[in-house]
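From the methods appendix. Each design record in this collection lists the tokenized structure first, followed by the designed amino acid sequence. Records were kept in a plain field format so they could be parsed without special tools. The example shown here is representative of the layout used throughout.

RECORD:
FOLD TOKENS (211 positions):
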């Protein structure tokens, strides 16, 4: 899925925007028009590293998006600003996701060891695997909480760039398709996480029933 997203981004980065605005300029305009004055726009290294950080209130755009003047850059810049708008408006799902991030940062250190150790020691005690499954369940929950947050940010972004004529009709179609494929990566990640969780739950159930 990542390769497909990269292919789409590369395709929509080839055509210059009719208004010649860069991703950074679009982000700055969107924040301004939503009366958000305490968020900084930063350029970061890497590809597809774009993100909004609610802790330090920064919209972080990769080099190609920050300086890019194309439909892909416009879509991604507006999307990340969509998260800033969510934050400013106290969007409940973003608040919920942010609240469990500190918990996940701690549990993620122990979860792999508990799962592996739990599988190896299942014949002795199911305790380690049970705890590991619970912690993995939290990461799966996080994956699904992320979906409405990402979808809503894209909705806000596309609505704004259309209403403000940031893109023309053809460019809008490109922007919408780019964000659609970006959203699919989150959907696939959530489904994959759920499938893995169900595997461990099934494994735990089968072993417990044999005893």
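DESIGN:
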């Amino acid at each position: 899925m990542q390769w497909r997203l990269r292919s789409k981004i590369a395709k929509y980065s080839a055509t210059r925007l009719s208004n010649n605005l860069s991703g950074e300029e679009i982000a700055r305009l969107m924040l301004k028009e939503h009366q958000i004055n305490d968020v900084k726009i930063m350029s970061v290294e890497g590809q597809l590293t774009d993100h909004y950080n609610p802790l330090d209130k920064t919209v972080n755009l990769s080099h190609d998006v920050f300086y890019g003047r194309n439909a892909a850059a416009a879509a991604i810049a507006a999307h990340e600003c969509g998260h800033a708008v969510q934050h400013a408006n106290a969007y409940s799902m973003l608040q919920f996701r942010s609240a469990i991030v500190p918990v996940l940062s701690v549990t993620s250190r122990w979860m792999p060891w508990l799962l592996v150790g739990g599988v190896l020691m299942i014949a002795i005690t199911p305790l380690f695997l049970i705890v590991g499954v619970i912690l993995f369940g939290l990461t799966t929950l996080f994956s699904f909480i992320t979906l409405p947050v990402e979808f809503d940010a894209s909705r806000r972004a596309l609505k704004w760039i259309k209403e403000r004529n940031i893109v023309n009709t053809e460019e809008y179609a490109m922007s919408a398709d780019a964000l659609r494929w970006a959203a699919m990566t989150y959907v696939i990640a959530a489904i994959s996480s759920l499938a893995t969780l169900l595997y461990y739950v099934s494994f735990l159930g089968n072993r417990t029933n044999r005893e």
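APPENDIX NOTE: Strands lie at 40-44, 51-53, 58-62.
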